[in-house]
Write a structure and sequence with these properties.
heterodimer; A: Gyrase A, domain 2; six-stranded mixed β-sheet; 34% strand; globular; B: 92 residues; alpha+beta; Folate-binding fold; 18% helix; binds zinc ion
């Protein structure tokens, strides 16, 4: 039997319809993205990190010792996998997560206040600097949080938790009139 | 219970991010050890008042097993080390 599988975004149901104008505090969801998990082989943490950070358009998100999520804005999922295999193929396990994770970008002057409602980590720039990233609990959902701008945070969540996290974030952002849409 | 744990990889985190996986001071008996020794190892646990050493799993963070030494009375945390580091030190 032949089946057709439609590639549907995890938040399609939530963000369907005509895009509304973005407010000051805005939650942006990428329609497609290239994300991969890289897990360094034992003892090769430093070598893998060096290889990955030598490439300017790969964004590294720290998960734990020797483990990162790699996000690329310029590659297709297949392209990213090919590039990572070339960079650290023999030194690390590389797994495509482009369809397994959802990336949400929260931006605006109240971003920190919104996140503070669900995250038990100090988000002051002195404690969580620009470019910093970490795995953390948001409410009851495990996410990877990263600061990509003074008032811009990126949250990466497992696909099956995306709707739940989205609803939580919209509730957390309601007093700040948080809006949400797919990115262009 | 100790409510803030300083993970060596992630920094200060609330206890909700962790799962406690039991006594870290137990030593596995030899395969040929007596049934009593194995029974004690598998089932018998103390419920200590005071200083304890436990395995804590940082499930919502780095997903590493940590060895946490804490006080069950004062909630003070004395030390937190990565499980691999603790095992390496124990071998010395
Ligand atoms: Zn940790």
């Amino acid at each position: 039997m032949v089946r057709d599988y439609n590639n549907r975004h995890a938040l399609d149901q939530k963000l369907r319809g005509t895009p509304k104008p973005a407010h000051v505090d805005h939650l942006e969801v990428g329609h497609w993205q290239a994300i991969a998990t890289v897990l360094a082989h034992a003892g090769l943490d430093a070598a893998v990190q060096r290889a990955l950070s030598s490439t300017p358009d790969l964004s590294l998100r720290y998960c734990g010792p020797g483990e990162w999520l790699v996000v690329s804005q310029v590659d297709t999922p297949v392209g990213l996998m090919r590039r990572l295999d070339m960079l650290c193929g023999t030194q690390a396990h590389v797994i495509d997560q482009s369809d397994g994770r959802v990336l949400l970008r929260l931006s605006g002057p109240s971003a920190r206040q919104i996140l503070a409602k669900g995250i038990g980590v100090d988000l002051h720039p002195a404690a969580f600097a620009l470019g910093g990233s970490t795995n953390v609990l948001c409410g009851h959902i495990a996410i990877n949080l990263s600061r990509t701008g003074e008032d811009i945070f990126e949250l990466i969540v497992s696909r099956s938790f995306a709707e739940s996290l989205f609803e939580d974030l919209m509730t957390m952002g309601r007093p700040f009139d948080l809006s949400a849409a797919f990115s262009e | 219970m100790a409510s803030l744990i300083t993970c060596p990889h992630c920094g200060v985190r609330p206890k909700e991010e962790f799962t406690i996986r039991g006594d870290a001071s137990l030593v596995r008996p030899a395969p040929s050890a007596s049934d009593e020794a194995w029974h004690d190892y598998v089932y018998v646990r103390a419920n200590p008042r005071g200083r304890t050493v436990e395995h804590w799993h940082h499930v919502a963070g780095c997903r590493r097993f940590l060895v946490v030494e804490r006080d069950t009375v004062t909630h003070e945390v004395y030390s937190v080390v990565d499980g691999a580091t603790a095992a390496r030190e124990a071998q010395r």
